[in-house]
Specification:
This protein has 82 residues and is mainly alpha-helical. The chain contains three helices and no strands. Helix 1 crosses helix 3. The two termini are 34 Å apart.
C-alpha cells in the first residue's frame, strides 16, 4: 500500500501486525473526541452559570487555537450525534 501513489495523503508504515493502524486511529480519535466533549460541557456549564465570556477569555489566554477552532469542533460533534 505504501508504494501506491496517494496524492494528498500522508502514509506511514506503523508495523507488520494487522490492527496496529486501527489501534493508533482509535486511540488518537478518542483523545480528540474526548477533548471536544470536555470543551462542550465546560462551555455549557459556563453559559448556565453566566460566566461564559470569562471562561472564553481565560481559554484564549492559555489556548487561543482551541477557542478559535471551537465552533468548528462543536459543529462537527453535533453533526455526528444523530
Amino acid at each position: 500500500m505504501a508504494d501506491l501513489p496517494s496524492p494528498g495523503l500522508e502514509l506511514r508504515i506503523v508495523g507488520p501486525e494487522i490492527g496496529t493502524a486501527s489501534a493508533i486511529k482509535m486511540s488518537t480519535a478518542s483523545f480528540y473526541k474526548g477533548q471536544t466533549a470536555l470543551l462542550a460541557q465546560a462551555l455549557r456549564t459556563a453559559r448556565a452559570n453566566g460566566v461564559l465570556e470569562f471562561v472564553l477569555d481565560d481559554l484564549r489566554r492559555s489556548n487561543p487555537e482551541l477557542v478559535r477552532d471551537a465552533p468548528r469542533m462543536l459543529q462537527s460533534i453535533a453533526a455526528k450525534s444523530d
